[in-house]
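pasting IMPACT family protein for the record, 198 residues
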Amino acid sequence: MVLRLTLVARATCQQEIKKSRFIAVAGPVADEAAAKDFIAAQSDPSANHNCWAWRLGQNYRFNDDGEPGGTAGKPILAAIDGQSLDHVAVVVTRWFGGILLGSGGLIRAYGGTAALCLRKAAKVELIDTVSGTFACAFSDLALVQSRLAALSGVQVAVQTFMDDGAALSVSAPKSEAPDVERMLTDLTRGRSMIRWTE
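structre below
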């Protein structure tokens, strides 16, 4: 199994290449809408170019924003892929310094600035999770809550109280879901079962 990583938080990096200033901003993104929002938020309208790329699993996009085709967005995507990152967007902004870099120079500048930014960024393993709902009686609630809290990677997102108990919205790593399900069934002596959704 290939280890997939994403960024913990937004990271930035800046370098000057032949009087042109390049600033890279990288960050974790949950979906395509978040990637578009990130790009819009990090792009500087006063700059000459705001080139970008993002990867979300098998989906990806990149844009050269007026630079010659293939010299900016694609090298940024290559920097993301080169570090086995997923659910990541990168914007590299350029202020032109008056010296032409040529195609090879642009590829190295955009790809290199993105790679430098990503190398410096804190990373975390990307774990596939599943969500589910679980209802239990008040008599089982305290024990269920304490056992769920003790499990690594398991989170209770919402608790809704009813007349006879509570409904819990739970997320867990996909690989742990069968164990969580078994534990909850055992704790309630089969009275309650979790229903997983993707």
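Residues 5-125 form a domain with the Ribosomal Protein S5; domain 2 fold (CATH 3.30.230.30).
The helical segments are 32-42, 73-82, 102-120, 138-150, 177-187.
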